[in-house]
## 1
Amino acid sequence: MQPLQIEDVVKSFGERRALDSVSLELREREILGMLGPNGAGKSTLVRTMMGRVSPDSGSVRIFGQTAPAGDTESRRAVGVVPQEIALYPLLTVRENLGVFGRYHGLDGSALEESVNKALHWAGLTDRAADVTKTLSGGMKRRLNIAAGVLHEPRILLLDEPTVGVDPQSRERIYEMIESLRERGVSILYTTHYMEEAERLCDRIAIIDHGRIIAMGTQEALVSQTIGGAREIVLDCDMAPGAAAAAALADRGASIDGTRIVIRAEKPAETMAEILAVAAKNALPIRDLSMKRPTLENVFLHLTGRELRE
Ligand SMILES: Nc1ncnc2c1ncn2[C@@H]1O[C@H](COP(=O)(O)OP(=O)(O)OP(=O)(O)O)[C@@H](O)[C@H]1O
Ligand SMILES: [Mg+2]
């Protein structure tokens, strides 16, 4: 039985269809990325999964049970970290965690132990007594995440947990999340940063205009949409002369001053040909690279748009 199963979920707000027949499953111990641009429907889907939004049709099942069942057990099974920071600014860090712990039915020494564990996990032990509004943005984000996992849920829904966070805190958050997966938590990770999805997620669902338009491992998404093609980029110290330019154009290159870009179905062969042209024409190479297609390329290929428009 999968931790979370969404089937044919439809949700409209007035005329606007925010979710259009969305189906997906979150598997045991995976980080499933949900990648999509602003307004794609990510938060609406997360809020549907946690029972905050009731779908017009379709079903959400948590460990096989129709959600929201409303009972304490299914509430305990799911942890949520909302997109907006949801903390009490005037309470201390420790008091905030206390509030969230009690909400999930913890108290006494069990609560204290969970709070101490969460503080340690989030790297906030030495800030426990500080008033929350005095924390840095990255620390607030970490506390926001800690508040969502304090009760050790088996499923965690994270809605863009690194927005506005500097790269160092971001890396720390990735490590926190990976340690949860190692503990057996199944994680849905919503983001519009493709680097993040690539770095962290076992599988990725791409969502656009309320629809899941592709789902799979990064490798599968790339090979299904783009195939084996690679982009070879050659930077030269000077623009290629007429003979070199003609030879490169014959191989499908586009030349922009000193920069030459070639899309290659057979990258090894094309690379060898380019190097031969450069050698023959004494073209001084400054930099030569071959890029693996990214999820950005996949998104562009599927939608005709950039992920960040
Ligand atoms: N409560 C609401 N009332 C009316 N429209 C809403 C409501 N919530 C969401 N929408 C609309 O549904 C669509 C999807 O919004 P949603 O917040 O789910 O997108 P998102 O993918 O989370 O975007 P972002 O990356 O900006 O957070 C948007 O067009 C939004 O305006
Ligand atoms: Mg959102």
## 2
Amino acid sequence: MPVYDYRVQPDQTGCEFCTNGFEMMRRLSDPPLTHCPKCQAPVIKIITAPALGRSKSMLDDRAKSAGFHKLKRVDHGAFEKLY
Ligand SMILES: [Zn+2]
């Protein structure tokens, strides 16, 4: 079963759990996780690796400049990190 990384959406305020990011095992047949299981804040799936959380504002800027809405369509509420 794959494990995915999630965190609260950059423009949203989440709880301590999702602000720091969390891992969740998901079956491929499961619907996409779109909200924090603890505080119900909207979350995004982080498809590529670690080291997120160092610069939230940088992520925001990158997301905007990279066409956030286009990326967001990849998978309901998720986007691919580009680096
Ligand atoms: Zn939360």
